[in-house]
Amino acid sequence: MPILTYNSDSFLMDGKPYTILSGAMHYFRIPKEYWHDRLLKLKECGFNTVETYTCWNLHEPKEGEFDFSGMLDIEAYVQTAADLGLNVILRPGPYICAEWEFGGLPAWLLRYENIALRCDDDHFVAMVRRYYTELFRRLTPHLSTKGGNIIMVQIENEYGSYGNDKTYLNKVADIYRDCGVDCLLFTSDGPTWHLFNGGSLPEHLCVANFGSRPDSAFAFLKEYRPNQPCMCGEFWCGWFDHWYEEHHIRDSREVIDVFTKMLGMGGSVNFYMFHGGTNFGFMNGANYFDEYQPTVTSYDYNAPLSEAGDITPLYMEIRALVEQHFGKLPPLTSRNTEKKAYGKVLLTEKATLFDTIDSISSPIRTAAPKFMEDIGQNYGFTLYSTTITGPLEDPVMKYDCVNDRAIVYVNGKRVGTLERTRRYDEIKLELEKGETVRLDILLENMGRINYGPQMRDKKGITGIRFWQQYHYGWDMWPLEMKDLSSVRYTPSDGGADTASFMRGKLVIEGEPHDTFIRTDGFHHGFITVNGFNLGRYYNDAGPQKTLYCPAPMLKEGENEIVVFETDCSENSVIEFVDSPCLG
Question: Catalytic residues, which ones?
């Protein structure tokens, strides 16, 4: 494959001027069966490159144990791009932001109280080296310098937005070299002196990330680095959504105007995102500025390809603009997948969490309630259980920390909800002398913070007290919800008044198709299809009202549908529809 270099005016591919037209698509947000479809659509839009992060937290889910299978087979993803004639820009982090859980860092890092993240900390750097050794053992043969299609590799990710440790950045680059990475290295940050000074290295290419005002961004980049070409490393053509907010939609005329200006200035560009995909499972991240803001399950991003991979009007406008600048493209062969409205499914079986918890978890006895990371848990829920004996002179339950959402039960009855920085129901235990009750608190990790100074984001509820007296003696039940096959169900024909698993069957005749699930009458929880976790729904918060269910997760015949409702549901019916509702 040709080698990418650059001079002060442009990129060069084997010595010839070259414009990088790239689009971001993250393999870990797309079913593997759809990789070829999505990459082909990128190619047929006139782009020559795909950009992707790598997700450390999924590739090393337990310390020292690695997974590159299925949707995590990044080597196959890179090869699929190569088969279509696409180059690859690789952004391996180790931190990726990406509105992804903990910015891609593994949750088990938080068990080490003294480890310093994203800096020249010996322990952290050693963990990074171990991960990169495994990652690049698979990817180094695919570098352009080795005959492959990976033309650029990023050093860290928008590091100037976090720190200024150049020793750390250089160590990341050194690990790359030790792993045989000898292609073009680069850094990316917002175009300001502060961010560039903190996050770039003088010997490596520097690119700018922005969503508007390309003239001023490129002018600054030229001032900062006059000896290199201009590139927008992340052109934010849309935006992501948080629960409790409106769905983000950007006027396509703005996107086309900015793209037109960048091309007119001879710039290269990477659309972020070209196709967003989905935060399947519990892998959405969160922001924290004035309040905690978890990201929704959909990562549609208002991108040129929708969450389900559909060609949008913006896609066609971008394709037309590429043709204006670079010549006529071959006719489109890509097609949108067929969508199917399978209709309503009755969830005929139910198991309350309290009735079945001993079949899916085992308690860990602790004196004080701990963070889930401290008991070896990464994702999902933790049930904290104890007994309280009266009388209590101050019956109001207090706590030191709740991260992120807790439902409180007294003797199995829901008495209130606590939601980080947002909702604080008063929990009162007015007990007579000698009266004893069981107190249960179902705590949910809604997504670790993926950006900014509060990323060291442990999950749990701690410091439970009445007046100034802390209460001790707890059972902690870890609920990562990975395998629900042992849940004990009983027949049911109604909704749920407490945290419950609800199960039904979707029967499909013939080839399955993409579909979307509505959960009207439910409040908050997640859905699995044939054991695959599609992600969270949160009807009380919005904006997202449907979950995307890709065809590869379905099969002909009977499909097992499990809904875990954390609050309550007015009915036991969900509906499979043929179009999304993102708000």
Answer: 158, 234
